[in-house]
Amino acid sequence: MTTTTDNNIAIHTLIENRWSPRAFSDESVGEEQLEALFDAARWAPSAMNEQPWRFIYAAKEDKAAFDRLSGLLVEGNSWAKNAAVLFVSIAKTAYDFNGSPNKHAWHDVGLATGNLLLQATDLGLHVHLMGGFDAAKAKKELGIPDGFEAVAMGAIGYVGDPETLPENLKARELATRQRKPLNEIAFKGEWKQK
Ligand SMILES: Cc1cc2nc3c(=O)[nH]c(=O)nc-3n(C[C@H](O)[C@H](O)[C@H](O)COP(=O)(O)O)c2cc1C
């Protein structure tokens, strides 16, 4: 189904086809593809071109590193252990140029991650982002230095069979995706609810 705006302009297929699965296949993701994802992230815009994003990733084949990342997840995100690759996104919290707090660092990590998601979609991959992880543990166990904070985690891979999921997750996997209507999120000129 094509998603359109009220003007019938089609949403870009990369945006339309992106979604966050919980069932991932066993297929691994090549290092070249991973590089393309992080390269896409690199080209995001950022305040003062500070590029405050950093990423730590591990493929399942690198068992020790993958287990370290999967050990950060809350129990509700255990499904992500089946993904081929896990990553943590990280923000540099102060500006390089004067050391003052970068209020847009997390915003810009989100932009970079958005690029990564679209590039993944273009490569036939899916990414499921997660806020459900232990950021303090990540900082300690991954050697994230002072001045940097873990923002989110992501699971990358090829979509798997929803039948492999437990019932509750399967229901969520197959549910219709919901979005707020446009008039609830975009206002012309001033704040206005409908
Ligand atoms: C910052 C962030 C944190 C999220 N945390 C979780 C999470 O901990 N567990 C989870 O299953 N999904 C998580 N999600 C995925 C969202 O639930 C999902 O993107 C949303 O329901 C919309 O679905 P869609 O991505 O398929 O369009 C997170 C997404 C973002 C962007």
TrEMBL record:
Residues 15-158 form the Nitroreductase domain. GO terms for molecular function: oxidoreductase activity. The keyword Oxidoreductase applies. SUPFAM superfamilies: FMN-dependent nitroreductase-like (SSF55469). Keywords: Oxidoreductase. The keyword Secreted does not apply. Pfam families: Nitroreductase (PF00881). Belongs to the nitroreductase family. This is Nitroreductase family protein. It comes from Pontibacter mangrovi.
